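Input (structure):
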């Protein structure tokens, strides 16, 4: 009944390379349900990228412990049975200063298909967490963006991640910068990503938030395209119903800014694949 996996995407939508499991304590649904949702959405593949363990204790409320990591493998690996959609194993390795020694030593030894790099904290402030939304009232928004991008730059420089996830996350609740300010601030970060040979994710979860825009913005995406920074697609699904969320719209956005390909990963090796046409 299941169609065989295709090379490329064929008529299917690109793979969803950003999904979570219940091990992160803020997602629900069995991985098999996520995969079924990927099949229903017409995706070629789905990668689980749950929040990486951080034995330092960083943000322990939102991730599996290191002791639970084997449980993560036990959740995902049984689904790697060759049936379509293909199931890949990844992690969202949130970067925070101080987490580098563990990530450096541990990440490269794991049997992963891809690793997302992301930033969720500025010092002790989870700036994308609705529980700390009030904090936005007492900060200099431009200063927050500046600090955020310096953390993303540090994450890029580690050379431990394949793809930068939700690149302009601080806009989540609507705290945007003017286009000219954003352009000036973001260009050196994009140059760094290009230099590191990393990809950017089009994260469709922004369409489910106040900002009502995917990450990154069309402006940033076109600056990324000018630099030939490759792209992947991610829904950041924390429930099965979010898998592949608005992927057709995301593909259209990618085409509009000039992309004709996206990346596929296997064992952390990227290969190019043409974007599907409408
Ligand atoms: Zn999460
Ligand atoms: Fe994230
Ligand atoms: Fe995520
Ligand atoms: Zn995320």
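Output (sequence):
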């Amino acid at each position: 009944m299941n169609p065989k996996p295709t090379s490329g995407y064929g008529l299917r939508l690109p793979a969803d390379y950003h999904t979570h499991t219940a091990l992160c304590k803020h997602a629900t649904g069995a991985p098999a349900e996520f995969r079924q949702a990927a099949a229903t959405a017409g995706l070629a593949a789905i990668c689980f990228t749950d929040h990486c363990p951080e034995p330092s204790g960083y943000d322990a409320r939102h991730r599996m412990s290191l002791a639970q990591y084997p449980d993560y493998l036990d959740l995902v690996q049984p689904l790697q049975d060759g049936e379509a959609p293909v199931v890949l194993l990844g992690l969202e390795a949130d970067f925070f200063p101080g987490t580098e020694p563990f990530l450096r030593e541990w990440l490269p030894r794991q049997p992963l298909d891809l690793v997302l790099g992301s930033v969720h904290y500025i010092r002790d402030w989870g700036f994308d967490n609705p529980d700390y939304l009030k904090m936005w009232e007492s900060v200099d928004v431009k200063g927050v963006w500046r600090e955020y991008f310096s953390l993303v730059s540090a994450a890029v420089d580690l050379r431990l991640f394949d793809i930068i996830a939700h690149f302009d996350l601080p806009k989540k609740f609507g705290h945007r910068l003017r286009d000219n300010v954003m352009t000036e601030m973001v260009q050196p970060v994009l140059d760094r990503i290009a230099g590191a040979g990393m990809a950017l994710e089009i994260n469709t979860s922004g369409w489910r938030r106040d900002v009502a825009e995917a990450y990154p913005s069309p402006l940033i995406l076109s600056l990324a395209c000018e630099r030939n920074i490759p792209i992947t697609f991610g829904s950041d699904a924390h429930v099965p119903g979010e898998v592949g969320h608005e992927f057709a719209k995301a593909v259209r956005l990618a085409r509009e800014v000039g992309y004709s390909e996206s990346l596929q990963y296997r064992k952390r090796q990227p290969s190019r694949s043409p974007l599907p046409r409408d």
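Notes: The first strand starts at residue 16 and ends at 19. The pocket of zinc ion (ligand 1) is lined by residues 20, 24, 26, 51, 238 (CB under 6 Å).
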